[in-house]
Amino acid sequence: MATRQKEEVASMIESLQEFSELKSIDKKTLTLVLQDSFRSVLAKMFETDENFDVIVNPDKGDIEILMNRVVVADDELQNPLLEVKLSDARKTVEDIEIGEDFTEEVHFEDFGRRAILNLRQTLAAKILELQKDGLYNKYKDLVGHVVTAEVYQVWKREMLLVDEDGNEVSLPRTEQIAGDNFRKGDHVRAVVLRVDNANNNPKIILSRTAPIFLQRLMEQEIPEIADGTIRIVKIVRLAGERAKVAVETSDDRIDPVGACVGVKGGRIHGIVRELRGENLDVIPYTNNASLLIQRALSPASISQIHIDEESKTAEVFMSSEEVSLAIGKAGANIKLACMLTGYQIDVYREGTGDDIFLDDFSDAIEPWVIQALKGIGLATAKAVLEADPAMVADKADLEEETVAEVRAVLEKEFEE
Questions:
Q1: What Cα–Cα distance (Å) separates residue 281 from each residue in 79, 178, 322?
Q2: Which of 58, 77, 96, 324 has the most CB atoms less than 10 A away?
Q3: What digits encode the pLDDT tens for the residues 113-133?
């Protein structure tokens, strides 16, 4: 029985050694784990481990346990755990005297089956702890970097993926692009968004919608960005729909936009495919707010612009045919332009004639409703009245009843 238990102990130690090699755990850490595990079991068995020395040889996988006791007279023995009879001690050390320390080797397998089971559980817990620490330490340094992982399981709210080392990582539905449709076994590229470590239970969160993901893809595809010749100043995204990237360079010989896009868009084709057809607008950055707003509203052309630096607002005037370009599909273009520039941009049609700006109706129409209408390029009364009510409700995210009430107020003004 003792031989069998000794083999079990050796097997557990060997398994831990293999795990440490697989996870690149250093010998010092392995030694501490083994010492702590044996000491933990000894403390449970004897209520203390203070009089035990645990010596580990990580290279050979040998464990030596030494029990230290004080020699006492045979008739004065009170605690066999801490004391040893003089007669028993002299069987090993003939000249030992009362009061001296007596050290002898004990074999863990002699402690019985329960001790073996306790050791197995303790080592399993230590291995799990090492796995968690290893996962956290690996990924905390990878936040903001792109990784590739294989889809293991797809759920409604997230996908579970496995990296090259067999670690589990998560890609929440909220961090997936609308066009993503991955299946088990697919390989996915994403950026490490963050590493949660609540209760020492690390969870790796990936993202394909974060602006940093687009930045890392551009760094991989465009050498001038990778080497720092071109700098990405800011990226704003409506993932899967459209993104705007402001770039600059200190080298006057380089066209930063042309270098990023490449001949016939060759440098960004791969990025667009990875992002499920997301339209990329690359614009040259400038500290001139007026010029930056004009560039951000591309492809629309602006006739004039009025900026209020204090309120960070901009009134932009353009011809009627340019308004839809400035607003973009579902308001995406102007929304991104506001995000990129940091200004609230209101678009106005030129040549309003006897038309009336919606701001003049602030006493009859709620300001937030006016703002919603201006946000989709309807800044005047006639612009609202000429637009299809259903389209207005949809694009401005307003109730149809609200749109009808607004139209009634505007129509009354012209009747008068």
A1: 81, 19, 17
A2: 58
A3: 787 788 778 877 877 887 888
